[in-house]
Design brief:
This protein is an alpha+beta fold and 282 residues long. It is built from 9 helices and 10 strands. Helix content is 33%, strand content 27%. It starts with a strand and ends in a 7-residue tail after the last strand.
Amino acid sequence: MVVNCYAKINLTLEILGKRADGYHEVRSVMQTIGLADRLEVLPAAGLSFACSDSALATPDNLVYRAARLLQSEYGVRAGAALRLEKRIPVAAGLGGGSSNAAGTIIALNRLWGLQLPHSEQQRLAAQLGSDVPFFLSGGTALAAGRGEKITPLPSLPAHWAVLVPLPRALSAAAVYQAVTPSDYTAGVATADTVAAAQRGTRITQTRWRNALARPAQTIAPEIAAAQNAVIQAGASHVHVSGSGPTVFTVCQEEAAARSLAAGLRRLACPAEAVPFVRTGWA
């Protein structure tokens, strides 16, 4: 069995305030994109995990943790050989680890014949991370709470994202720790984007907001340089995905996205053009 685990971008990410449990209350419109890790799953007597990036092949990896969670929750005695081919940059604000965890739940639910309903898969996913429930379905969705409360939205018209990943891995926890009340908003930008999705209209980037952009830039000043490069290459808007450091812009047409990515590569920026996709895995 092979599962493609897609990355995501945050079209908006607003923080409404701090919760009593220490997490931040967020509102975010998330979108899966055509950049994916490849997860291979084979029947086996025991449980094993390998990764194309050997540094990630540890018991702490979300693939292995998701498999162990399923075994412990349902008394599964069967095993599986799991191998992950990484293409999504690590700790880049693109949700690679969370997508891998969701892909593991989906694959092992089938392999082990668990027949778990979607609601049960979501419950398990939320134990592994705030973004994991989103990737069980993917596409376009509103995330609320600490990010684990997912409301699917109508698929947006076809768009393309131009990504500029940066070499630095950025800890989401560190970025959230740098958030201050000045970064809080009322969620209006997210509500506007949700309304646009529900109307089926082409999206406008003018009012998109990411509350984590400022704190991410304080930790990784090179984000600002990458944003400037995207504008210099011809984009009218540029955004930070998640907790960064990946920056991106969105184009309505494939040709425009590929042209912009080529222009960025001429500026020595490792840009990639990828389409929006309507699922979290395939």
